[in-house]
Write a structure and sequence with these properties.
Diaminopimelate Epimerase, Chain A, domain 1; 19 strands; 20% strand; 5-stranded mixed sheet; 562 residues; alpha/beta
C-alpha cells in the first residue's frame, strides 16, 4: 500500500489558527487540511446548527414542487411516495411518508421490486398509482434519467415530482418538477446531497412556505443522517450539518424502527455505527426480499412492532452474508480461472448469482484485485444486470458511458453504477469496458493509496487531543477520521495474532520515553514478521477509545506498518 502523506499547509495559516483558537500545531494542521483557516470557519465547523442550512428555494423547480404539494394537502389528495430499494431510497420514502401524513395527506409508500422491476422509476409503479386513482407521485433517490417512464406517467395524467441526486443525462425528464442539485441549471450552492437530503429540502421548503419554524422538522433528521452515512456522500457543508443534527436526534429520541436496528449498541454515536450496524440490515430487506419491509420497520409506531420486524430483517441480513460469501468465492475463482488477474478491470458474470448482493460482491473483489469492477447476473431471459464499483479517483460512470453502444440503460455516479445489457452483448461490452479502463486508468489509480494527515509523537496523544477529534465528527468522505503516522516505534514484546483465523494483530507500542499504547490491526496479520523486539517501526493509525470491562483507554487502530 502506498502512503500519501499530505503536504503541510501554509505556515502562516497554521500560526493564525494556533493563535486565534488556542490549539496546538497538530490540530491546526488537521483543520487547515480541511480548508478551515479562520476563527469563523472553525466556529461553523465545530458548532453545526440548523441555521447553516441553505434556502431550499435556491433549488431549481422548488417553487413548482411546493405549490403542487400544498395543493395536494389542501385538496386532501392521496400521494404515492416512490423510492429506490437501498438505504437512501427506503429512508427517503419513510421520511416523506411520515412527514406528509403529519400534514394530513393520505400516503401510499412504494418501493420497486428489485427483481421484477429493477432499479429506478418503473412503469409498474406508475400503473399501480393509476389503478389506485392516485394522480400525484413523488419519486425519491431516482427518476432523473427516467425519460420514458415520466412520459408514461404524463400520459396517464399523473403529476410527478422527482427528488434525485444522481447525475442527469443530456435531457431531463418532462416531470412537473425535477429537484436535483446536480442539474446544470440549478443554482443550489451544495451539490452533494443524498436523495433523502433532497427530500428533506422539499419538506423544509414546504414549512418555510407555510410560515412554520424549520425546527419542526429536526425530528426527521435521524432518517437523513442514516441515508448520508449509508450513501457515502461527502461529509462536508450541508451534509455534515444534517448528519450532526441527525445523529443527535438519533441518540436523544430514537424512533422505534431505528432503535430496533441498533442491535449491538444502545446508540449510534458515530457514522461508522450506522454504516456497519444499521445500513446493512436496512439494505438486506431490498436485497433478499422486498424494500417495503424496511420502510414498514422504519415507520413502526411501537417498540414491540419494531422488534418483531427487526428480527425478520436480521434474518435477511444473515442470509445475505451467506450468499455474498459464496458468490465472492465463485467470482474470484472465475477471475483466476480465466487468467484475468492482469486485466485493467474485473468483469465477471454467472446467470445464477443473486442480483441483490452483486454490488457488495463487486466491492469485495476490489479488496482482492484493486481495479474498477462490474459483476453481472441474469435478471431475466436474455437480459443481464450489473453492479459497478470503482477505485479511488476513477470515474466508472464515465467509463461505462463510453461503452453505451452495448448498453440498454445505466445510471449512477463516479464510484458506483448499475448497468443493463442484452446477454448477447456481454463479451462485446466486457472487451469495450476493459479497453476503456486500460486507456484511462492512471498509474496512481492502480495502486491502493492511504492518505496520511500528519506526524504525531506519542507524547502528543492526550485526553485533550481526543476531545478535539471527537468534536471533528461526524467523519466521512472529505472529512475523514484523521490518520496519523509515528516513526521510531518499538514493539514492547506483547504482539500476538488474534481473531478466529489469526488475521489480526494486537500489539503494544512505545516511542522513546512515552508510556506504552495498545494497538489493534485488523487484517494486518501478514505484518507480524515485522514486529521483532528492538526493530524500529513506522506505523499509520487512527486514534480511538477502547472500552473494556468499564475501563476506557486510548487505542491505536492500525492501518499499516513498515
Amino acid at each position: 500500500m502506498h502512503w500519501n502523506i499530505k503536504d503541510t499547509p501554509n505556515k502562516e495559516t497554521i500560526t493564525h489558527l494556533i493563535d486565534c483558537l488556542g490549539i496546538d500545531a497538530v490540530v491546526a494542521q488537521l483543520l487547515a487540511q480541511r480548508n478551515i483557516t479562520s476563527f469563523e470557519s472553525a466556529k461553523a465547523f465545530f458548532r453545526p446548527h440548523i441555521g447553516q442550512l441553505h434556502d431550499p428555494f435556491l433549488m431549481q423547480d422548488m417553487e413548482t414542487a411546493v405549490s403542487r404539494l400544498q395543493q395536494a394537502i389542501d385538496q386532501k389528495e392521496t400521494v404515492m411516495v416512490y423510492g429506490d430499494y437501498d438505504v437512501d431510497g427506503t429512508t427517503s420514502v419513510s421520511l416523506l411518508t411520515h412527514f406528509l401524513r403529519s400534514q394530513g395527506l393520505s400516503v401510499t409508500p412504494y418501493i420497486p421490486d428489485r427483481y421484477a422491476e429493477g432499479y429506478g422509476l418503473s412503469k409498474k409503479g406508475i400503473y399501480t398509482a393509476k389503478a389506485a386513482n392516485i394522480s400525484f407521485m413523488i419519486a425519491l433517490d431516482c427518476g432523473v434519467k427516467a425519460i420514458e417512464q415520466v412520459a408514461y406517467a404524463n400520459s396517464l395524467g399523473i403529476d410527478l415530482i422527482i427528488c434525485d441526486h444522481h447525475t442527469p443525462g443530456d435531457v431531463l425528464p418532462n416531470a412537473l418538477a425535477v429537484l436535483d442539485p446536480k442539474r446544470s441549471d440549478c443554482a443550489y450552492p451544495f451539490k452533494e446531497l443524498c436523495g433523502c437530503g433532497v427530500g428533506f429540502k422539499l419538506m423544509q421548503a414546504l414549512l418555510q412556505q407555510q410560515g412554520k419554524d424549520v425546527n419542526d422538522i429536526i425530528a426527521y433528521l435521524d432518517f437523513v443522517a442514516v441515508a448520508i452515512a449509508a450513501d457515502i456522500v461527502p461529509m462536508v457543508g450541508e451534509n455534515r450539518t444534517l448528519a450532526f443534527l441527525g445523529l443527535q436526534q438519533l441518540n436523544a429520541h430514537p424512533r422505534p424502527g431505528l432503535k430496533a436496528l441498533m442491535r449491538d449498541k444502545p446508540t449510534a454515536q458515530i457514522i461508522s455505527d450506522v454504516v456497519f450496524g444499521m445500513a446493512p440490515r436496512i439494505n438486506a430487506a431490498g436485497r433478499m426480499k422486498h424494500g417495503l419491509d424496511a420502510v414498514e420497520l422504519l415507520l413502526s409506531a411501537t417498540d414491540e412492532e419494531a422488534q418483531t420486524l427487526a428480527q425478520e430483517v436480521e434474518m435477511y441480513n444473515t442470509s445475505r452474508r451467506e450468499v455474498e460469501q459464496k458468490i465472492t468465492k465463485e467470482a474470484l475463482t472465475q477471475i483466476t480461472g480465466n487468467q484475468d488477474e492482469n486485466n485493467a478491470a474485473n468483469v465477471v458474470y454467472a446467470p445464477h448469482w443473486h442480483k441483490g448482493v452483486i454490488g457488495i460482491v463487486a466491492s469485495r473483489l476490489i479488496e482482492s484485485y484493486y481495479r474498477p469492477t462490474l459483476v453481472f447476473t441474469r435478471s431475466k431471459e436474455g437480459i443481464l444486470t450489473a453492479s459497478a464499483r470503482s477505485v479511488r479517483g476513477f470515474d466508472v460512470y464515465t467509463a461505462i458511458d463510453a461503452c453505451r453502444r452495448h448498453i440498454i440503460q445505466f445510471g449512477g455516479h463516479k464510484y458506483a453504477a448499475g448497468v443493463t445489457i442484452k446477454e448477447e452483448n456481454y463479451q462485446a461490452f466486457k472487451l469495450a469496458f476493459e479497453t476503456q479502463v486500460a486507456q484511462t486508468l492512471t498509474g496512481t489509480q492502480k495502486a491502493q493509496t492511504l492518505d496520511v494527515d500528519v506526524a504525531l509523537p506519542f507524547t502528543a496523544i492526550t485526553p485533550k487531543l481526543l476531545r478535539i477529534l471527537k468534536q471533528m465528527e461526524p467523519f466521512g468522505p472529505e472529512n475523514s477520521n484523521p490518520i496519523f503516522y509515528t516513526d521510531g516505534v518499538l514493539d514492547s514484546g506483547y504482539a500476538k495474532l488474534v481473531g478466529q483465523d489469526k488475521s489480526h494483530i494486537k500489539a503494544r507500542f512505545v516511542q522513546g520515553d512515552s508510556s506504552p499504547i495498545d494497538a489493534i490491526g485488523f487484517g494486518l496479520g501478514n505484518k507480524m514478521g515485522l514486529l521483532k523486539k528492538g526493530t524500529p517501526l513506522r506505523i499509520v493509525y487512527v486514534l480511538e477509545e477502547n472500552e473494556w470491562q468499564g475501563n476506557v483507554s486510548v487505542q491505536l487502530r492500525l492501518k499499516d506498518i513498515e
